[in-house]
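Lab notebook, bench 4. Continuing the backlog of folding jobs that were queued last week. Each job is logged with the same field layout so the records can be merged later without manual cleanup. Today's entry covers GtrA-like protein, a 136-residue chain. Filled in by technician R.K.

JOB TYPE: sequence-to-structure
TARGET: GtrA-like protein
LENGTH: 136
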Amino acid sequence: MKNKQQLTKEIFLYLLFGGLTTLVNIVSYYGSSLFTDYRVATILAWVVAVLFAFITNKLYVFRSENASTKEFLPFLGARVLSLFMDLGVMIVFVDLFKQDDLLAKIIANVLVVIFNYIASKFFIFKDSVQERENAS
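JOB STATUS: finished
OUTPUT FIELD FOLLOWS
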């Protein structure tokens, strides 16, 4: 029962901080898009969101005590993949389908949040997750 409670709490925290990361990403994107192309704004927003996400995932969601560099490099690698996913969705929706860029950004972020949770739980912070599960 405790494992189910831990998983529920972890998912809740991930969704909370994932939502905040999405908000950071969208606000950063919007601010950047006022003075630059949507592709550049997407990359700038990604940088800000990745830093925010790493800190909150490490400290609050997965409560990792491992060395930051040990986790940051795989985290960054996974987030680079999500950047390509984000940019791909943006280009398809804005350039191909002629949709509003903010709508495209929201759609991209939904896909990215799902991908990032899977990558974080099963690859990046897996040692911390396993340690907590074994301690229960």
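OBSERVATION: The chain has one domain: 2-131.
SIGNED: R.K.
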